[in-house]
Each structure stands twice: as C-alpha cells, then as structure tokens.
Design brief:
With about 240 residues, this protein is α+β, with helices and mostly antiparallel strands. The protein folds into 2 domains: about 100 residues, Lipocalin; about 100 residues, no CATH class. It is about 20% helix and about 40% strand. The strands form 2 sheets. An 8-stranded antiparallel sheet has the order 1-2-3-4-5-6-7-8, with no helix packed on it. An 8-stranded antiparallel sheet has the order 11-10-9-16-15-14-13-12. β13 and β14 form a beta hairpin. α2 packs parallel to α4. The chain is globular and about 60 Å long. It starts with a helix and ends with a strand.
C-alpha cells in the first residue's frame, strides 16, 4: 500500500514538472501590463509606453512564424531557433527578438527595439481571422472603458453610455463606433493628448479625450496646423463629461 502511494505521488510530481516545462508558445499574447498602466495613468498612450512599445505577439511554431503589433505597425518574422521554451525570431533587416515562455507568461528580452516586455494569454478568444492587435484592443477597451457611463455634462445629459470592447458605442451623441488612438499617424497628430475616433453611419472625426479616474472628458479636436502641414490636433470646447458607474 505504501509502495503504491509512493509511486502515485512520484507520478504526480513528475507529471507536474513535465506540464510546467512543456509550455506551448503558440497563439496570441497581450501586454497586460500596458493595459493596467493605461487604466491607472492620466495619459493613456504615455502610460502604455512605460510597458511597451509592443502590445501583442502572435506565435505559430508549426508555420515557423511570429509577429508583433505595436498598435500601428505589424512586424512579421521567422522563427529560426526554438528550444526549451525559448524562441529566436528573425525579422527583415537582419534584426532579432528573443522570446521565452515560462508557464503563463511570455517575455520579450531587452533589445535594440526596446526594453524587456511581458505578455500573457488574453482572457477572451476572438475569431481566428481577427486582424492583428485585435485581442489587445479588445482587452484594453474592456478594462479602460468597460461598464456603464453617465453623461454628467453635454448633449444627452443624464443618459447612459456604453462602450463595447468590439468598438461599438451606444448613447454618445448618436455615434455607433469608436476607436482609441494607440500609435502611428493619429498619435503624431494629437501629440501629447490622447485621441479617439467617433463615427456614425461610417462618417467620423477625431476627438481629444482625457480620463481621470472614473471621469472621461471628450473635447472637440481643433487643428492648429496650416493647410499644407500635417494636422496638429488640440483640445477645443468640451463636448461631454462622462462618469463611470
């Protein structure tokens, strides 16, 4: 009896060790630290950069490929080395990224492209054909704008607003879609300010926003650039003040 129990415990121990080391790196990994920083910070993009710049990784060892998204660019690389939970990715232009997987966490080693960054599997699985970066956006939108909001000041005062993680919005001046600016041209145009895109019936415009705790201010975006220059957006008149319930 004792021998049988000892063998059972030994098998469980060996099985536990094997499951810990035999980690499957395939799938999508998101930068949850960047999301947490965005929720806590006063400026969304600056807060995310403290844990970025990469926001999502997608790994496919069977195809020998891996790619990252930083909210604007998509970097596609080839896995040239894979062993013991470690991957080496080669990208066009002869630069490399090293990834390591330990349990539920993927770590991107510090390199010329940026500091060490950490990623986890998303809690919600999206469709297989979802565009790169969609899983990160879904998680960010849920954490940053999830729940119900009330219009404290502005058009529709007193009514409820709901931002869905798939980019739909209800109750905000008739708009039906939104998108937060994470990087790229929209970030260059808004500079130090956070911006979002609001759209109704496929017609939209950029807006400046500022989130402080449970309050969200949305301002008209004023272009201060000349006609032949790249737009430079600054906050104009406040259109809405929302409060999270």
């Amino acid at each position: 009896m004792r021998r049988a129990l000892a063998l059972t415990l030994l098998a469980a121990l060996v099985s536990g060790c094997a499951s810990h080391t035999d980690v499957n790196p395939d799938g999508i990994w998101i930068n949850q630290n960047a999301i947490d920083a965005a929720v806590k910070g006063s400026n969304m993009r600056e807060a995310m950069l403290s844990s970025g710049p990469n926001l999502e990784w997608q790994v496919d060892t069977k195809a020998g490929q891996a790619s990252f998204s930083n909210g604007f660019e998509l970097g596609e690389g080839k896995i040239i080395e894979s062993k013991a939970g470690k991957l080496r990715i080669e990208f066009y232009g002869n630069f490399f990224e090293d990834l390591s997987i330990d349990g539920s966490q993927l770590t991107q080693a510090a390199s010329e492209s940026g500091p060490e960054q950490r990623f986890v599997k998303p809690k919600v699985s999206l469709a297989a054909d979802a565009p790169p970066g969609s899983s990160f956006e879904h998680a960010l939108y849920s954490a940053y704008l999830g729940g119900k909001w009330t219009i404290v000041s502005g058009d529709g005062q007193g009514s409820s607003v709901q931002f869905s993680p798939d980019g739909r919005v209800q109750g905000l001046g008739g708009n039906d879609r939104y998108a937060l600016c994470l990087a790229g041209d929209c970030a260059a145009m808004s500079g130090e300010y956070d911006s979002m895109w609001l759209e109704r019936a496929e017609q939209g415009a950029p807006w400046i926003f500022a989130r402080k705790g449970q309050q969200l201010e949305i301002f008209q975006a004023i272009n201060t650039a000349e006609a032949d220059e790249m737009p430079q957006l600054r906050p104009g008149q406040r259109r809405w003040l929302l409060e999270q319930q």
